[in-house]
């Protein structure tokens, strides 16, 4: 997989949304579900027991989604200009040093030039197995990393972990409903699903 091929595949599979992880639920609300990563919708883990729960929930859903042998991992960094450096959150390069630059996006082109922030997207494929992305998932849970997207290499579904849970976008409403039914205790009690 290379940047042009990934871009073409993304545009075929997810034409209504550029790869901004936090936009996915708004662009695909009928195929979206959010799972909370701790009981009682607690946002952050305080101890190793709670981190184990966070990781177990991510692993459970990802295993049910079945990415296959290889998982696509998209991470983000932000810069004040279109160049890939200097980066605002250098933690990304520590967690995903093998990722290659995929593309640069400008979230709000209407913003004044001196206030613009550019999103630098990086991608890599890794062999999927339990524990393969635990460092990344913990960094996301601690809000050290954001705008992460996980997917199979054919992009048939998208998984966006965030500090507090994960948003999942599936190919159909029926698949979304089936996944929701497997973990009702991990869902929000709010009608919005947040």
UniProtKB/TrEMBL annotation:
Domain of life: Bacteria
Domain DUF3885, residue spans: 21-189
Protein name (Swiss-Prot/TrEMBL): DUF3885 domain-containing protein
Biological classification of the source: Bacteria, Bacillati, Actinomycetota, Actinomycetes, Micromonosporales
